Amino acid sequence: MLPILFVTSRLPALAQQRLEALTDVKVVQHNSTRPIGRTQLLEAVGQADGLICVLSNKIDAEVIAAAGPQLRVVSTISVGYDHIDLDALRRRGGTSLGFTPNVLTDATADTTVLLALMAARRAKEALQMVAVGGGGFSLSTGLGSQFTGKTLGIVGLGRIGCATAARLLPFGVSRIVYSGSRPRDDRARPLNAQYVSFEELLRESDLVCICCPLNERTAGIFNRQAFAAMKPTAILVNTARGAIVNQDDLLEALDKGLIAHAALDVTVPEPLPGDHPLVRHPNCTILPHIGSATEETRNAMSNLAIDNALAGIKGQALKAKVDLD
């Protein structure tokens, strides 16, 4: 009997073709772009030797407990894995965790710059104006700002943070500062970036880009105190995880003019309801988590997840494995 690989979502076209052509496993799939139901997930994982999941699937202690003893690998199509209960996996033992780092760096950095430019040039207002037949050239209305001579602050100088900074340098940024758990001289040197405290980064930066992972240290760090420390002309961009930003405090900061604009690709929840005050706020631009949403990147992520799942089922080394020790 072939081992069962359960996949919680339909994959991008090229990766889906590969998945359907597999002959060394039996593929069982929730073949839809709509989220899988909780009951279906709990039932399916009980029979699976391998599980491929996505960021919106909550792989918590209940799901892991429902897994049969044959489950050897959980393979998430994401670089982050805060949707997976690592402690439950550790307690279970014998189940590897794969993820998809490196392949989404460029696409996410592109989206970060896209949001930064949309915020700086007030694109949300401009698009809304065009949609109602308004606009036209004006010397004094709808004016945005440039990055020339400005200070860029990167929270988390990992691969995506570095790629974002490198893309913004040609826009005339004069200074780059970054914060994180420790200095990253090897990454900072080519960018001439300076390691500073989080508090100094908030005070000095004209554009703040959140590129760090979500963990106990970063959850909710952009709160009322953080916004109060920022420049009133500052722009905040978040393409990391929604829970890094306290959204109630962000709304208050925008209403009070503590910062100029927020541009978000990630929120809590996802998606935000259409009537949410941040969605309707003129100084908040929101995209529906498209950071890695290119044909090239989503197929590469999915293929890496398939590689990880097949390796785990066969008892081989995963190409990209989360260290659970």
SSE layout and pairings?
Blueprint: E1 4-7, H1 13-20, E2 26-29, H2 38-45, E3 50-53, H3 61-66, E4 73-76, H4 86-92, E5 96-98, H5 105-120, H6 123-131, E6 151-155, H7 159-168, E7 175-179, H8 185-188, E8 193-195, H9 198-204, E9 207-210, H10 224-229, E10 235-238, H11 247-256, E11 261-264, H12 277-280, E12 284-286, H13 295-313
Parallel strand pairs: 1-2, 1-3, 3-4, 4-5, 6-7, 6-9, 7-8, 9-10, 10-11, 11-12
Descriptive report:
- The chain is α/β, with parallel strands linked by helices.
- Helices cover 35% and strands 14% of the residues.
- The protein has helices at residues 13-20, 38-45, 61-66, 86-92, 105-120, 123-131, 159-168, 185-188, 198-204, 224-229, 247-256, 277-280, 295-313; strands at residues 4-7, 26-29, 50-53, 73-76, 96-98, 151-155, 175-179, 193-195, 207-210, 235-238, 261-264, 284-286.
- Strand 9 (207-210), helix 10 (224-229) and strand 10 (235-238) form a beta-alpha-beta unit.
- It starts with a strand and ends in a 12-residue tail after the last helix.
Which short descriptors sum up this protein?
325 residues, alpha/beta, 5-stranded parallel beta sheet, 13 helices
User: If you average the pLDDT, what whole number results?
Assistant: 96
| Distinct helical segment count | 13
Apparent shape: globular
Distance between the termini: 32 Å
Main β-sheet, in a few words?
A: 7 strands, parallel
Question: Structural class of the helices, strands and pairings?
Answer: alpha/beta
Count the beta strands.
12
Q: Helical proportion?
A: 25-40%
Along the chain, the helix and strand elements come as: EHEHEHEHEHHEHEHEHEHEHEHEH
- Unreliable spans are none
Strands of the widest sheet, in order across it, are 8-7-6-9-10-11-12
Q: Give the percentage of residues in beta strands.
A: 5-15%
| Overall radius of gyration | 21 Å
